[in-house]
Amino acid sequence: MRNLTKFAGFIAIITIICLFTTACVEETEESSLRFIPDGHRYIVMRANPRITGHIVIPAKHKGLPVTTIGYFGETKILSVAIPDSVTSIERMAFDGCTGLTSITIPNSVTSIGDQAFGHTGLTSITISNSITSIATAAFAGCSSLTSITIPNSVTSIGKSAFYECTGLTSITIPNSVTSIGDFAFYGWYFSQTIYIQFATLAQADLAWGGSGWRGGNCNAKIVNNAGVQIWP
Question: What is the value of pTM for the model shown?
Answer without folding.
Answer: 0.84
